[in-house]
Amino acid sequence: xxGNNQEKNIDRSHTLYYTRPAADWNExxxxxxxxxxxxxxxxxxAELIQLNEDSLWSGDFRDRNNPLAYNNxxxxxxxxxxxxxxxxxxxxxxxxxxxxENQRHYQPLGDLHIWQHFDGExxxxxxxxxxxxxxxKTTFTVGDNTFTREIFASKPDEVIVxxxxxxxxxxxxxxxxxxxxxxxDKNEAYDDKTLLFTVSDGIPYACAIxxxxxxxxxxxxxxxxxxxxxxxxxxxxxxxSSWRTGxxxxxxxxxxxxxxxxxxxxxxxxxESYYSSLYSRSYIKIDPINEVSANTEERxxxxxxxxxxxxxxNLYFNFSKYLMISGSGEGTLPLxxxxxxxxxxxxxxxxxxTVNINTEMNYWAAExxxxxxxxxxxxxHIERMRENGRVTARKMYNCRGTVCHHNTDIWGDTxxxxxxxPGTLWPMxxxxxxxxxxxxxxxxxxxxxLEEKFDTMLEAAEFFLDFLTEDEKSRLVTNPSVSPENxxxxxxxxxxxxxxxxxxxxxxxxxxxxxxxKASEHLTNDGRKLSxxxxxxxxxxxxxxxRLPKPEIGKYGQIxxxxxxxxxxxxxxxxxxxxxALYPSDMITPEKTPELAAAAKATLERRLAHGGGHTGWSRxxxxxxxxxxxxxxxxxxxxxxxxxxxxxxxxxxxxxxFQIDGNFGGAAGIIEALLQTxxxxxxxxxxxxxxxxxxxxxxxxxxxxxxxxKWQDGKxxxxxxxxxxxx
Length: 727
Known about the structure:
Layout: E1 15-18, E2 29-32, E3 36-40, E4 46-53, H1 73-81, H2 85-95, E5 110-116, E6 122-130, E7 135-142, E8 145-154, E9 159-166, E10 171-178, E11 186-189, E12 194-199, E13 205-212, E14 217-221, E15 224-230, E16 232-241, H3 248-260, H4 264-279, E17 283-286, H5 296-304, H6 310-327, E18 353-354, H7 358-362, H8 372-397, E19 407-408, H9 429-444, H10 447-467, E20 469-470, E21 476-477, E22 488-489, E23 495-496, H11 503-525, H12 532-545, E24 567-568, H13 594-609, H14 616-628, H15 632-645, H16 661-674, E25 675-676, E26 683-684, E27 695-701, E28 705-712, E29 715-723
Antiparallel strand pairs: 1-6, 2-3, 3-4, 4-5, 5-10, 6-7, 7-8, 8-9, 9-16, 10-15, 11-12, 12-13, 13-16, 14-15, 17-27, 18-19, 20-21, 22-23, 22-24, 25-26, 27-28, 28-29
Helix pairs in contact: 1-2, 5-15, 6-16, 8-9, 9-10, 9-11, 10-11, 10-12, 11-12, 14-15, 14-16, 15-16
């Protein structure tokens, strides 16, 4: 049902809309420019904007590689081969864990409080986030006066802008910044219009906050800014850290003051021009099948009660674009577990880069959405990891190449993270990340990029040319490793995590090796000359690839997760690692490998029957896998589950707690239902959900193409394909 009249003009596919302020952080609305972020609560009298900057982490780099690892490597392998799981785990604790348990972790900037002064109670409250303009707006009425706050994070001007207006003047407020557990150096007036907040704990940084108004009185008092009796006013927030620049205080102050010399309209136009150039590159418009409320909270509750809302699917897709552009861009760090939005000094899992799926999932939808430019921070970070990975490869395993385990941080730390047997000793992080190099090239056909990154791919593979060992079937397998975060029952009845040749490892390596082989062919065909060393390594990779284990079918008709057909201790585990071959890889397809596709379906059914998909990102992964199996009804069912049980009212994905990977994985699943290009051809509507009977889309394809298409009654009615170089 439609709500009151103010809802009628709300674009339900591009606007998050609420009629009350946020009650907590998981209801606040995110703004960001890729580097600088804020969570806006929208309280009329006591606004809170929780601030972040992507380079604020807990400290400097430290070498945590365990010097005992290599001398115990063969002993570890023997214990694993003999299924002496408890002895292997004890040795892991002694010789393979990092010499300091933790890498560095992400931290918040601070909290900006704005106390807006007015007499009386407010009415007619609205809080929106316009995704197509990247503009957060709060409006409310007091008496006969309507107040508005507009907030955006500008990439061109590197500031967060807060714009206050009112119908009849009377804007008055006081604002101050605090937070960081009082762990700051300065919180004081820099001059008569600017506050300066500096912190030297962890990575040192500065935040500058400037106020202005042409017709009201504004200035600073101690550690506060104020404005009195204005018809409009602006606040500008800038932050810089020592990670990026030497004189971070000077740069932060300069950015805030430079922005304050521009009109609000100029700043807004510059912001919208940059943002819309990215946001408009792709679209999905699934036609509605019934009238729905504009209120996002009510819509999510309705889906939970079984109602259909196709425009909410559009909104989810568009929100993922908004988060990508707002959280990742040229010159930024890549998206971590929460993107750039984190309120805790000690966040869950350190809010780091978990590279046994979560960081990779963050970028699954980017290329098809035409947001390859937002993918580039990941490639920059791989280069930061590369030298550290060489050190880890040599110190721990006496291998060439570069390696990373299941986490990394701002410094590109590659040593094992945590003291947690199901996850810690997994050597595949760098290998999986490097498959994104080929993925970016496959969409963009940027041959210069591929040539630049080819050595990085080779180096990630080179580690395994030394590390792999021969098993009893003469296959080449990883040892030691784990199947990420899962536990098995060994033949003797004991439980174990450490193993040799888990299925995901072999699948990742097959994918990376195949990417390298294709890359070498593309480079050669383009006339790029490969060195003798590159050609030699590529040929070794081709030979080794054929000796990797292939996906196998186990006793339940499932794809085996381990080299042995072990039972899982937790059959409904959130990771479904053995189906990497189905998605994001393309080793398993219904057309080319029907028996394996049937086994993949059995794997999903078994996981779900035991409670799988209970975390947001896991449910998102499941959507993609059902789409690859051409199961449209299952896609629809699992999207409904994602929206019903793993989505907060601000549309953030909930693990729980909040993890941003599910937002991007869910968007990727929506794309896969409508368009698949992994098999070398364009497939339209391969897994169309029953409720998505008509609509249109414009998306990017592998092969450097852009396609637009429409469908009606489940059938394609129009389509056109363009080379992206012609756009």
